[in-house]
Write a structure and sequence with these properties.
CATH architecture: Orthogonal Bundle
Shape: globular
Order of helices and strands: HHHHHHHHHHH
Radius of gyration: 17 Å
Helix content: 55-70%
Number of helices: 11
CATH class: Mainly Alpha
CATH topology: TorD-like
CATH superfamily: TorD-like
Number of domains: 1
Largest sheet: none
Length: 203
């Protein structure tokens, strides 16, 4: 067992589920899903909670979505001719421009936590997929020991909380969103749950 694997044993089942969902969102937002990921989405089930219902909706759409359609949708939303319908970056949502102060602040905080960009990734680090993956990694200790709830809250409140729910809401209503409209709903509801949970830790 490697040292990071040992850390994972210290993570509660609830936190592991949170990390899994952050990872899942990150995976869906990093690139178009292949058949395997669509099958995994289609196999999801949820309870009667808002998040459970959003997950059920995502499963229903995934069941009737082919990889080629998912790729066209992803490209229209995030790549496009020149640019996609949405720009999924913290800098853009917080300042209206890319590569601005929020990105510099994120890079400082990443360096302080020993988080580095993967060598094959060329996107600015403040894109939504990377933010979801970073949060998952902090929760389970992928960058060292698992982050305390206070540290998670600090990072989330600074880099994710101010804009991610707005992005997911935009994704829900985007003209080109079909499969990703359901991802947007699940992401928005999850961000609301996280915001409330972090607020309660301050009580």
């Amino acid at each position: 067992m490697t040292a990071p694997d040992a850390h994972i044993l210290d993570v509660s089942p609830e936190d592991r589920l949170r990390a899994d969902f952050y990872n899942f969102l990150g995976l869906l937002l990093a690139g178009p899903p292949d058949q395997l990921l669509l099958d995994q989405m289609a196999g999801l089930s949820g309870d009667d909670s808002d998040l459970g219902q959003a997950i059920q909706a995502m499963a229903r759409v995934a069941k009737v979505t082919k990889p080629a359609a998912a790729e066209r949708e992803f490209n229209a939303l995030f790549i496009g001719l020149g640019r996609g319908e949405l720009l999924p970056y913290a800098s853009f949502y917080l300042t209206g421009f890319l590569n601005e102060k929020p990105l510099a602040q994120l890079r400082n905080d990443m360096a302080a936590r020993g988080i580095t960009r993967a060598p094959n990734v060329y996107e600015p680090e403040d894109n939504i997929a990377s933010m979801m993956e970073m949060m998952a990694g902090m929760i389970v200790g992928r960058f060292g020991k698992p982050a305390s709830l206070e540290d998670q809250k600090t990072f989330w409140s600074k880099h994710i909380g101010p804009w991610a729910a707005h992005f997911y809401s935009d994704l829900e209503g985007a003209e080109n969103s079909v499969l990703y409209a359901s991802v947007g709903t699940a992401g928005r509801v999850f961000m609301e749950i996280e915001r409330e949970a972090f607020r309660m830790t301050a009580a």
